[in-house]
Amino acid sequence: MDGLQAVWLAFGVTIFSLATSQAPLSLCASTIPNISSKPFALNGDVNGGMTITLSRRKVEWSDAEEDTPGAILACSSSASGVREAWNSYRISTSCFASTTHAKFADTTDWKREMTWRTFRDYYKRYDTEFGQPHFWSDTPAGVSFNLSSYFKCDELERPGGAKRVVNCADQAAVVELGCSLGRRADEPPMSWVVHERFGFINKTHLVGITDQNHHHILVNNPFFVDRVETAVLDINDPARSAFAQHVYHSFGNSATSGSEHVADTDYIYDACCGPYLGNETAVTYRALTIDTTTRLYDQRDDMHPRIIAKHPGIPCIDGQHQTSPESLGANGAASAILGVFGLPVEATSSMTYVSWAHVPEWIKEVLDDSWCVTDGRVGVGEANAHTLWYLNRQGCSSSTLRITVYVQSPIDANGVLDMAAARQATRRCLASIIQSTDAPLQFVWTRAELDEFGEYSVRYTRGGRCIVVAAGQTVVEIWNRDNSMAVETFEDCARKLLEHTIRRESDGLPLTAPIIKRGPLATGSHDEHPSKIVVQNDGRFSLDFELDKPIAAANATTEGYGYMFERYVQEVTEDLVTVKLMMVARYAGSHVVTVHFADSETMISRSQKFEVEVEIVE
Q1: What is residue 370's predicted lDDT score, i.e. its pLDDT?
Q2: Which residue range(s) make up the domain with 361?
Q3: How many C-beta atoms surround the C-beta of residue 506 within 10 A?
Q4: What residue spans of 485-545 are helical by DSSP H?
Q5: What pLDDT is recorded for position 157?
Q6: What is residue 597's predicted lDDT score, i.e. its pLDDT?
Q7: HEC-encoded secondary structure of 224-245
Q8: What is the CATH number of the domain that holds 564?
Q9: CB 431 within 8 A of CB 449
Q10: Domain identity same for 88 and 113
Q11: What pLDDT is stored for residue 121 in this prediction?
Q12: pLDDT confidence of 592, banded at 50, 70, 90?
């Protein structure tokens, strides 16, 4: 077998090469730099050595055998991961056919082929009921893509046949995997594009949506569930559904320049819709996919196409990060990055931030009446929470400010924030933001000298574009989108926002996570909850909790794919806070559910696991 044979990635600290030139297979290993942040590597045609590229940094690997023409790459943080790589050999070889770079004219040809394979070859079908991702989960290291489940074979040896339903984010992850393997060491990676409020779609093909003869059918009503006859509706039919958001990839000038925006001349790769194989520019892609002629936007303003922004992509695969978020290696890598700008090795001041979950309530008071929130969300996972807000000023056609807040929440047994661990996590988060650019760090960032707002602060060297401040367990990132504001105006707004939300030691704010007083996992003489929840045939049920304080966000994640979290409802009275988590059971059986709650003021979070057995009855 020559050239690129297959890939197995679980993203740990060691890369294993399984040479495929001769039998038996041989195993080589090399440790990757902790400073790397992306779980994908370049496996070029090997001739006397190998260059492994992770993210924007590379390390020469001289241990490869000189007669090794190709390799399988695997990342793992444990010996069991190595065994898993061997066990996955048969599966992964069926997913990535034996291919050398020499068979392709250039990397564009490679990206085109990998995108086409992702659309065609893995036995996937778009989720026409919920449009939800099915191979993603929250972990302490961040959001994780469950690659092993995506490529798990069914009894007929079809990769992915055991779990077929996907959405655009699932497909985008596999496109990134395949395309990154063919990337030159001097070439920037493809960019994830998150297109909020994508809108109604023109007639197109969706992955796996076929007729009985396995021919793709046209669709302009993506959430037709199982009523194929409604896959295409009149463009003005009120029953027609739309994409709330869509995820795909771009490559072009914006990737090489480091811009956070997609350029109209960038080329688009989409393995969920179309497919689009890098032949269309962004402006052409939008014209072909988004229906701008329907009158339904008059009734559904919330579906009108709005925000198009780049996303960092996948930080984690199969729950394994490059290094454990608690490891000395990760902390040392963060210190090395922050040290470039003379930022302190250790922070001791007592500062934190509050109220970032409630920006729509106070933005006019802090800035002025011309400001409003155009879009945003609050999310929570295990040991972390975050907010994202887009702010607009009256008279501006697009969002002017983008604010992202990250709150790290490692807690002790008493539910109190472990500040030492939180500070380390905050440093890692800040370092991740700094190294997210393609250009050399010193060309992009400089120290911001905003010590009154945090232990650490950096800004863009050109000024007026981006400010990042870290204090205690919180990182605040404020962007001047499109440089639409003058430098002085932007910095004045940033200072007002920071001053309104910062709390110092003298304020005496208790840093505690929400406490679950009663719920499915609680025990008590008067409130015993049954271990089995009987669910009706639609699979919907709820989990009820009583907390000690209001929350800013709630979430529920599962081990495996037994449940899907839909939404939560919070009721706050003078002496009681109740939260109802709305869930959907995908199949009966026993499953582990982890619930997450973020405090309303500080966004410090608490997570707890429990087991639920579901019996679906007619």
Answers
A1: 92
A2: 328-507
A3: 7
A4: 487-501
A5: 57
A6: 93
A7: CCCCHHHCCCCCCCCCCCCEEE
A8: 2.60.40
A9: no
A10: no
A11: 81
A12: confident
Q: Are residues 540 and 490 in the same domain?
A: no
Quick one: pLDDT band at residue 285, thresholds 50, 70, 90? very high
Highest mean pLDDT among 17-31, 73-87, 149-163, 228-242: 228-242
Within the chain, what is the greatest distance between any pair of CA atoms?
A: 74
Q: End of a domain among 507, 542, 565?
A: 507
Structure tokens at 288: 């072909």
The amino acid at 59: V
How many separate domains does the chain show? 4
* Higher pLDDT, residue 134 or 10: 134
What is the β-pairing status of strands 577-585 and 563-572?
antiparallel
For residues 419 and 473, is the Cβ–Cβ distance under 8 A? yes
Distance CA 231, CA 205 (A): 10
Bridge partners (DSSP) listed for residue 377 = 388
- What's the pTM? 0.54
396 and 304 together in one domain = no
One DSSP character per residue, 333-376 reads: HHHHHHHTTT--SS----EEE--GGGHHHHHHHHS-TTEEEEEE
Residues 320 and 369 in one domain: no
Helices (H) and strands (E) in the chain, counts: 12, 32
Boundary-marking domain end, from 481, 507, 533: 507
Nearest 10 degrees: CA dihedral of 431, 134, 42, 3? 170
372 contact partners, CB below 8 Å, separation of at least 6: 360, 363, 364, 391, 392, 394
Burial 567-601 (b: 16+ CB within 10 A, else e): ebebeeeeeebbbebebbbbeeeebebbbbbbbbb
In this prediction, residue 319 carries a pLDDT of 55
Tell whether 75 and 137 lie within a shared domain.
no
What lies within 8 Å, CB to CB, of 109 at 6+ separation is none
Identity of the highest mean pLDDT range in 6-15, 467-476, 601-610: 467-476
Residue among 136, 278, 125, 321 nearest 207 (CA): 125
The CA-to-CA distance between both ends of the chain, in Å, stands at 52
Nearest-angstrom CA–CA distance, 134 and 169: 9
What is the structure's pLDDT at 234? 96
Residues 547 and 461 in one domain: no
Using an 8 Å Cβ cutoff, are 151 and 159 in contact? yes
Structure confidence at residue 433 as a pLDDT band (50, 70, 90): confident
Rg of the chain (C-alpha set)? 25
Q: Given this model, what pLDDT does residue 601 score?
A: 92
Q: Which has more confidence, 250 or 565?
A: 250
For residue 137, the model assigns a pLDDT of 61
Contact 97, 192 (CB under 8 A): no
319 lies in the same domain as 333 = no
Same domain, 62 and 116: no
Beta bridge partners of 311: 192
